[in-house]
Amino acid sequence: MRTLFVYLALMPAIAISLDNGVMRVPPMGWLAWERFRCETDCVNNPHTCISERLFMEMADRLVEDGWSDAGYKYVNIDDCWAEKKRNATTGRLVPDLKRFPNGIKALADYVHSLGLKLGIYADLGNFTCGGYPGTTLDRIHLDAQTFAEWGIDMLKLDGCYSTPEEQALGYPKMSKALNKTGRVIAYSCSWPAYIGGLPPKVNYTLLGEICNLWRNYGDIQDSWDSVLDIVHWWGKNQDILIPAAGPGHWNDPDMLIVGDFSLSKGESRAQLAMWAILAAPLFMSNDLRRIGHTARALLQHPGPININQDPLGIQGRLILSIASLDIWKRQLKGGQYAIAVLNKGTAGTPKKLQLSLSLVNITAAQLYMVTDVYEEKHLGLYNPNVDFHISVNPSDVLLLLVKPLS
Ligand code: GLA
Question: What is the spatial distance between Cα 185 and Cα 76, in angstroms, rounded to a whole number?
Answer without folding.
Answer: 13
